[in-house]
Amino acid sequence: MATENKNLSDYDKNTVPNAKDFRFGIVVSEWNDTITEGLYNGAFETFIENHVPAQQIIRWNVPGSFELIYGAKKMLQTQNVDAVIVIGCVIQGQTKHFDFVCEGVTQGIKDLNVQTDIPVIFCVLTDNNMQQSIDRSGGIHGNKGTEAAIAAIKMAYIRQQASLNQFQDQPLLSTGALQIEDKPLELEK
Ligand SMILES: Nc1c(NC[C@H](O)[C@H](O)[C@H](O)CO)[nH]c(=O)[nH]c1=O
Ligand SMILES: CC(=O)[C@@H](O)COP(=O)(O)O
Predict the structure, then answer these.
(1) Which residues of the chain have a pLDDT value below 50?
(2) Where on this chain does 5-amino-6-(D-ribitylamino)uracil bind (predicted)?
(3) ipTM score
């Protein structure tokens, strides 16, 4: 489903676990900072809306999207966080550099998810032009930062429950969603 058919800011609050005790890191690229600031604001505000205290949200800046990999790695190594969001905006230029940056960041963040125990959420726009980025950072298609914050909460919860081995005897709804203490968690099919 393309973004144009699903607003990035829409989510069902009934499927989001209580996030008041989680700690989150956000690594923000300074390239295209008008866009990345919009994505950050979307993520930060969504965390606050879901009861994450501001003092439990750690922000680091890096020069560009390629540096998100190292920045996230060092945050994971040094900070007590339950999930990390990396925020970037890569826009096609005149050369193939776009392809290499996008692929490099994608693979690097994937590697961190494989090699470490902390979820790293991919909030990197890879757009053809600035208008597409504007549309996805608080514009007509919503805010990918909101989407990323919800993903971070859900993944932090999955990590927490998995570490407690609670999934083994957790009651399941008929839909296959986990029944958690106050609201069901919809696991993506
Ligand atoms: N063109 C964009 C870049 N390029 C810079 C790289 O991300 C990196 O900082 C540089 O190659 C030094 O290692 N970065 C973006 O985030 N967005 C772009 O559109
Ligand atoms: C993604 C990039 O690095 C790109 O925006 C740089 O522009 P260009 O390909 O014209 O050098």
Answers:
(1) none
(2) 31, 65-67, 89-91, 122
(3) 0.97
